[in-house]
Amino acid sequence: MTVTVPGSDVPRMLLVDPAVLRDPFTAYGAAREQHPVARLLAPGVRPMWALTRYQDSRAMLNSPQFQFTVDSLTIRPDMPDSGLAYLESMLIDGDVHRRLRRLVAPAFTPRHADRLREPMTAIVDTLLDELESRVAGGRVDMLEHFARPLPMDVLCGLMGIPDDDRPLWRSYGAAVSVGEGDRWSEVMPGVLDSTRRAIEGRRAEPGDDLISDLVRVQEADGDRLSDTEITGLIWLIMVAASTTADFLANAVLALLTHPAQLASLRSGATPMPRAVEELLRWCSLNVISIPRYASADVELLGVPIRAGDPVVSVLVAANRDPRVFADPDRLDFDRPPGTPGSLTFAHGPHICIGAALARVLVDVALTRLLGRFPDLALGVDQQELRRIKDPGTWRLESLPITLRRPESPLWILRNGLETQENQGGPSKG
Ligand code: HEM
């Protein structure tokens, strides 16, 4: 799985090695314990330096020596060209990035996210009705019929996307989540059109939403914020938010395969926000960060890095660094107060702007899902579940679940008697 860079003890890993794709936690964990730096290779991609330990990752993600550049945007090879053009203004380090982030920050504070709890609950409950109506043969795919539409429905409300356009955004969110570049490209023009229409609509009739706020800033600010920038910003936020769907599926799977932790959550012994924090650490969605590029020659943890070399943090390895988290492979809702936060939302100038919103959204979704279905269980054997072959993210293809307990011996065998406490990585239990 790992070999060593000749002449050094830096491990070399193939990003698309089936063992790495199957269980990135174990593969990158082994590299982390061998050396703080790894060399990541993939066909057709420039070799990247990777930091696998928590403190080193935090320092790199926050260091001006490592910058987002145009090259950082190629991280998702399925990204349509029209999307790349928009990402440039928002993501590349510099004044534009700082200004746009400052403008949208008020809509994404923890306090604002908490104020959205009630409308989110209404959206979650409607989607749970839909989920129930989709059950076929006793099972339903919660990823397709609950988790994927959820962030888009919530974000459309927050942004001020007109109701008529929401199905379009849902299908876009699904295409992004599934990671099919062709489908992204097909839906992209409609989505950009919808954003432009929403901007015009809010200009004519402002409301209590993010697009109206941005239009107000634009009017107060002369020509500093262009319609193109607003469109790009809205689109980026929507794309980034759709990742919440995949994390939610990871979280539900983790709970359904950890009966003791699930029971502690159901009994109220573990408060939901604490569980969400540990789930974020344990089954984080992004395997590696977006690459940064060294702005000058530098020595990093004893390894010479050349100006322009790409450097990433392996977030899943940092989140399970035993130097920071005791018994790190264990899903443990009782970690002591003061345990550092995970790097699931990264760190530094590009730290996920939607982190507070994602936390509340996952909290509400899990609370309502578990509350409504006391017998919720996996609808297939865990070994049958498939992951999307994407070295950047840890995503399920689908997550079939059963909502109610059928009186069937097979169900009892699978979910009642056979479920074992999983102490290892997600692929181990
Ligand atoms: C559990 C769900 C989510 C996860 C795991 C996640 C993870 C991340 C990570 C790791 C980054 C930084 C990437 C890097 O620097 O290499 C990021 C950036 C970002 N996220 Fe999230 N995210 C989630 C939900 C959301 C939501 C709900 C929104 C919007 C409401 C959002 C909007 C963004 C934006 C706009 C950025 C770019 C920030 C910048 O470059 O300044 N994310 N996210």
Describe this structure in words.
By secondary structure, this protein is an alpha+beta fold. It has one domain: Cytochrome P450 (Cytochrome p450, Orthogonal Bundle), CATH 1.10.630. Helix content is 49%, strand content 10%. It has 19 helices and twelve strands. It has helices spanning 18-22, 24-34, 54-61, 81-91, 95-104, 110-115, 117-133, 142-147, 149-159, 166-178, 181-204, 210-220, 227-241, 243-256, 259-266, 272-282, 315-318, 355-372, 409-417, and strands at residues 2-4, 11-14, 37-42, 45-51, 66-67, 140-141, 292-294, 298-300, 303-305, 310-313, 377-378, 400-402. It has a seven-stranded mixed sheet with strand order 1-2-3-4-10-7-5. A three-stranded antiparallel sheet has the order 6-12-11. A two-stranded antiparallel sheet has the order 8-9. A hairpin with a 2-residue loop joins β8 and β9. The chain is globular and about 65 Å long. The protein starts with a strand and ends in a 12-residue tail after the last helix. Mean pLDDT is 87; it is low at 418-429. Bound molecules: protoporphyrin IX containing FE.
Short description:
It contains 19 helices and 12 strands.
How are the SSEs placed, and which strands pair?
Blueprint: E1 2-4, E2 11-14, H1 18-22, H2 24-34, E3 37-42, E4 45-51, H3 54-61, E5 66-67, H4 81-91, H5 95-104, H6 110-115, H7 117-133, E6 140-141, H8 142-147, H9 149-159, H10 166-178, H11 181-204, H12 210-220, H13 227-241, H14 243-256, H15 259-266, H16 272-282, E7 292-294, E8 298-300, E9 303-305, E10 310-313, H17 315-318, H18 355-372, E11 377-378, E12 400-402, H19 409-417
Parallel strand pairs: 2-3, 4-10
Antiparallel strand pairs: 1-2, 3-4, 5-7, 6-12, 7-10, 8-9, 11-12
Bound molecules: protoporphyrin IX containing FE.
